Each structure stands twice: as structure tokens, then as C-alpha cells.
Amino acid sequence: MFPDLSAEWLMRGEGGMIKTATITDIDRIASLVDTIATLQKALADKDKTITLLTEQIKNQRK
Known about the structure:
- This protein is 73% helix and 0% strand.
- It is mainly α.
- The chain starts with 6 loop residues before the first helix and ends with a helix.
């Protein structure tokens, strides 16, 4: 129910309340950050394409 809470802290009052990130968590976060950056670039490229095509359509209507 609360995966970030330490069972050791809850039951014995020892250690930190919040679990520290594991290497796997850090790697997963890094991977997600890379994916987000890639998707942001793809969206920006698509926005440029849409803008260019919109301008071309406007120019053809003139």
C-alpha cells in the first residue's frame, strides 16, 4: 500500500522512514528521463512540421 515506507522503520523505529532509491530505481528513472527527452524532441519536430504545412496551405489559397 505504501511501497516507499520502510517496514523496518514502521515496526522497529530503526532506520529511515522512507526507503532509499535502489540502483534499479535510479536506472529506471534515468531511462524514463531519456524517453521523455526523446518524446519532447519528437513533439517539437512535429510542431515545426505542422507550422510549415499550415503556412504552405495558406500560401496555396492566395
